[in-house]
Amino acid sequence: MSQPDEDGDENERVGYGRPPKKNQFQKGISGNPRGRPRTRMKPRPVLTLGRIGPEIILNESTRTVQVRENGKVEEMPLLQAIIRGVHISALKGNLRAATVAVQLAKVAEETMDRQWSEKIDEVIENQHRWDQSLRLAQAAGQSLPEPVPHPYDFGLDHSTMSIVCNGPGSDAEKAHWDKMVERRNDFVGEIEDILAYPGSAGLGPLENALCSMVAQIDRIDGLFPDERTRRQPDFNLARWRAEGGMRTKSLNEIKRPWDPKYWAQVKARRSPKGEGERRAIQRAVA
């Protein structure tokens, strides 16, 4: 450190921690006029139990665990393993476990009944809304295009307690559905033209062709049921198709298609007549 001159003032000494007076901060004047830049703190996420608790519980409840029962290892969600353990304890005579099992069953039944009632109300409400819109349009002399899917094409599957769509569910599916129905009606019209021929009683050589057309009608009816069929209570389109619908007949099973009794039954399936006339036709050919 440099030493001041003997005649120099003590205040003029310069050294470590003593910069020249001209470079020192002046009294009353800030050395940083702009001030310290403000630091923007990123907001920290508030991790409360109310926000992360449900997610943690669901993740833990649904994670897969292995359970050994009767010498076999089975994978299942953790919650299912806990409920199974409660029921097993109840079977072994644990009174508390039995009480819990009964309470769980009661809560589950009440929840499913409430959800089922809500589904039924939803279907009925959509149907009523469509009926109201249709009445208003008819009163105004207007016509409404049928919605796709149609409210009356929704049914309730009591076996699975779910809502099922028994008709076309999109515009593309509706177009395909209408195309198949049109093809069916073409088969019907072609058979009627053949049967209207004066010499149809002796059309033995055409029997295979007629039987083939009737078989095509049966196949279309089995895949694309009419409104009266698919809007019956407890109808399920997937089950209907899996079971074959109006069971498709082979050519050997089809009798002479110009048999009046059989042909009247085929036409009655999609008869444009009213419900009373349709039933009268069915009674007449029975």
How are the elements arranged and paired?
Layout: H1 49-62, E1 64-69, E2 72-77, H2 78-91, H3 95-139, E3 154-157, E4 162-165, H4 171-195, H5 207-223, H6 227-230, H7 237-242, H8 260-268, H9 275-285
Antiparallel strand pairs: 1-2, 3-4
Helix pairs in contact: 2-3, 4-5, 8-9
How would you describe this structure to a colleague?
- By secondary structure, the protein is mainly α.
- It folds into 2 domains: 60-144, no CATH class; 168-285, no CATH class.
- The chain has 9 helices and 4 strands.
- A two-stranded antiparallel sheet has the order 1-2. Strands 3-4 form a two-stranded antiparallel ribbon.
- The protein is elongated and about 135 Å long.
- It starts with 48 loop residues before the first helix and ends with a helix.
- Residues 250-257 and 271-286 have low confidence and may be disordered.
